[in-house]
Amino acid sequence: MLAAAEAVAVAAELAAIFARDAAERDANRLIPLVELDRLSESGLLAITVPAPYGGADLPTETVAEVFRLLSAGDPNIGQIPHSHFVYVNQLRLRGTDAQQKLLFAEVLAGRRFGNAQSEANTRHVRDIRTTLTADGPGRWRLNGRKFYATGALLAHRIPVLAHLGPDGPLHVAWVDRHAGGVEVIDDWNGLGQRTTASGSVVLRDVDVPDDLITPFAVTFEGPQTYGAFAQVLHAAIDAGIARAALTDAATFVREKSRPYPDAQVERAADDPLVVQAFGEIELAVRGSEALLAEAARAIDRANADLTAASATAASLAVAAARAATTRAALDAGSRLFEVAGTRSAAAGLGLDRHWRNARTHTLHDPAAWKVQHLGRWAVDGTPPPNHGQV
Known about the structure:
It comes from Phytohabitans rumicis. Keywords: Oxidoreductase. The chain has about 400 residues and is α+β, with helices and mostly antiparallel strands. It has 3 domains: about 5-110, Butyryl-Coa Dehydrogenase, subunit A, domain 1; about 130-220, Butyryl-CoA Dehydrogenase, subunit A, domain 2; about 220-380, Up-down Bundle (Butyryl-CoA Dehydrogenase, subunit A, domain 3). It is about 50% helix and about 10% strand. It is built from 12 helices and 7 strands. The protein has a 7-stranded mixed sheet with strand order 5-6-2-1-3-4-7, covered by helices on one side. Strand 3 and strand 4 (about 170-175) form a beta hairpin. Helix 10 (about 310-340) crosses helix 12 (about 365-380). The chain is globular, with a radius of gyration of 21 Å.
């Protein structure tokens, strides 16, 4: 069981290892199975298991920093376990004691949860059609098709968001990755985050017992930090991308860039315009990292005393972090070419992966809506919606 400082240290060590081949994995779309197994073996995937069930029960502040570090090494590896942590949280909030004993034990043993939540070709992201249909006492049949199922390909168990009965309330079915009727298709073809395997999950008459179903819709009937927790981990991924882009740009400028003649300097790193640009990028990245850390602390404060006011404060802090990390990641991923010069655009270097990763991952939730919620709060005190996406 890892303490907070140990978890951060292990994440930093793994990030350095994952960074070595990140460009190669991106270029050749190599799914990081070996790396994910190493992540499982490290114990990091179990750091939020509650103490009564044998876990470290570490705070959100630590989890966010772990995600930021892993994503600075390789944001694909940072994103793959995102849903694992979100559904560990769902189990913590809505699972029965028996369900928690069973599934938390799997997490402690290094097993990974994926996700089958979003669906393609529906009206919007919260329009779910996958359904659990009654099939005798205590048994259900699960049918549907999911997309953006990050983590499912390499998971041991896949939490599936589905209606309990036709048009019934949303529940989570905890299905085995290799259960009959479960098909995971590696059809993800994004321009960035290329190795997250965020493809499709097809569910055909999957047999699910009552004791592997947990309620989901009731999560949002009162104050909650479930959505803020999920969102702050997305912010941590973007903050990691931003930091990695800045780090790689600095290395390139020091080691490979040629100075522009008008600067009249021996090294590109001494060009005052280059130094100014680096300062501006560093400022944005540091600002986003600070907002990320504060958002995580706000969630921890809300969890310690959960009220409508504390949940609202957490959601607003997370909205600010999401907006800031989105801008920082996109800016750093683009401006690295400005500071590094023409030769940095060579395709074989793979420096473009930072912008591609940022552009792809930041589309997960529109940053403009985070700013809208902040603006509405600032103008007239309107709290953000309680639907789990802020």
